[in-house]
Amino acid sequence: MEAKFFCFLEIIGVGYKASTNAQGSILYLKLGFSHEIRLQVTPSVRVFCLKPNLICCTGMDHQKVTQFAAIVKSCKPPEVYKGKGIQYRNEIIHKKQGKKK
Fold this sequence. Notes:
mainly beta; Outer Surface Protein A, domain 3; globular; Ribosomal_uL6-like_a/b-dom_sf; Large ribosomal subunit protein uL6m; mitochondrion; Ribosomal_uL6-like; ribosomal protein
C-alpha cells in the first residue's frame, strides 16, 4: 500500500508520549491522565510513531486520514495558555496572555 496522504501530529507537554503496538493497529497515548488512552486504528489508515512526541498518520483516503488525526487530536486539544496538548505539525496556536498583577 502506497500512502498518498500524510498527517503529522505533534505532542507537546512534559511526560506526554505516544506509541503503537508491533502491527500498528493500536495507538497508545499517555497524556497526563490517570490511565493510558488506547485508540483502535482504522484498517485504511497506518500510524507510525517517529518519535515519542511525533505521530504520522498515512493512507490512501484523505478523508479517513484526517478523520483519524482529528480523533487523536480531540483526546487532548492544545491548551490556550501554555500550548500543551496534541496539535498538527504546521498549526499555529495563539496563546492567551495570563493574569496581570
